[in-house]
Amino acid sequence: MTQTPIHNTRVIAFTHFAAGPIAAQYLGALGADVIKVESPKRDLNRYAIRDPEDALNGVSPYFVCTNRNQRGVVLDLKSEAGLEAARKLITSADVVLENYRPGVMDKLGLGYEDARRLKSDIVYCSFSAYDSTGPARDRPGQDLLMQALSGLASLSGRVDDPPVPVGAYVIDGFTAMQGVIGILSALLYRTTSGEGQHVRADMMSTALYMMTQEASFVANAGQMIERTRAGLAHVNHGAPYGIYKVSDGAIAISVFGGSDVIRGLAVALKVEDELDDYLTERGLKVNRDEIALAFARSLANLSLDEATERLTAAGAWVAPVRTIAEAMRDPAVQETGIVRHYSPPGMVQHTVVTEPLQMSATPLRRDLAAPTHGEHTLEVLRELGYDEAAARSLAESTSTAVPPVRSDNSNKSSA
């Protein structure tokens, strides 16, 4: 079997919703033995957003795509027996990962200082909305709220309309990656120092870092960023950088260059006479709305193929605006193997997009589907030293059905 980068690492994940599970899942792809600790009431993401036709037997598509590469146990952390099992898990671990509200793990006796007493060299990663040591530590955090609070949402849309948030949970995902980077760095440091540490990543800091170029402009140029009437794709970019409607869809135009390049595009779209006064270096900045709107009127009368041919010949980079389904069907995407199909027992086959990283010597692990609720409780409790009777008693106390024994290949995926 091919080795994975961190195959001798055990991660205990007290995680729910998005950022925590995504980070845990990535560590699992890198080879860690990740054990997800779920409450008897279940991770809200397991059932909060279901397929309209219940295609996944009542499990949310959001859960199956963010909780792969993990073994699932159910523990009642409100009971002493559940807490004792959690403490045993931490003692057996290299990494603890959690994304509950600041202070929750401390109240349970499972915070960083508690974990460090159980395992002196533990690497402990916490996610939060704001820095968990700062004055806003108790404010609620959710991707849309953080897009609004960070200013990210203010960058998109037309100036006369409300700001437009990004239509995906981008801050959750990017925050998760900060945690993964921190954990891997902390593990590397531990190999030379013998010391663990507390890794923290928060959504506000992550959101601002995602906008480091835009934030730098605001901080150093002394100018506010304003959206355009035409809704250009970047607040500091000149026309025609953006997305435009064509007769049979939409097209993205990315172009870098001065007035000569933009004039060439105007000629290709037959709007040069209309824009002649604006096609100067200063005009490109001052009159970007007029340029973009003229381009929009011309492009609306062209098909995608016609627009692509004209603009490409004139020196622009262009691409059709595809749906997610169309992008996933792209042969170039399929070739990477990141789109995979899973057929776990009790659930119909489902498809997810897996981690994009490619490594030649230590390829990522992508074969384990998201666990059913409490699927590995007995298995993990036995590993912790519980005898059969004690393991079954603790598992049954959470009102979780004891899962059937699976074969080694029962929860695998195919590319």
Topology:
Elements: E1 10-14, H1 19-29, E2 33-38, H2 61-66, E3 71-74, H3 80-91, E4 95-98, H4 104-107, H5 112-118, E5 123-128, H6 143-150, H7 170-193, E6 197-202, H8 203-210, H9 212-221, E7 242-246, E8 249-254, H10 259-268, H11 272-275, H12 281-286, H13 288-299, H14 304-313, E9 317-320, H15 324-329, H16 331-336, E10 339-342, E11 350-353, H17 377-383, H18 388-397, E12 413-414
Parallel strand pairs: 1-2, 1-4, 2-3, 4-5, 5-6
Antiparallel strand pairs: 7-8, 8-9, 10-11, 10-12
Helix pairs in contact: 1-7, 6-8, 7-8, 17-18
Could you walk me through the main structural features you see in this protein, from its secondary elements to its overall organization?
This protein is α/β, with parallel strands linked by helices and 415 residues long. The chain folds into two domains: 285 residues, Rossmann fold (3-Layer(aba) Sandwich), CATH 3.40.50; 74 residues, no CATH class. Helices cover 39% and strands 13% of the residues. The strands form three sheets. It has a six-stranded parallel sheet, sandwiched between helices. α2 links the parallel β2 and β3.
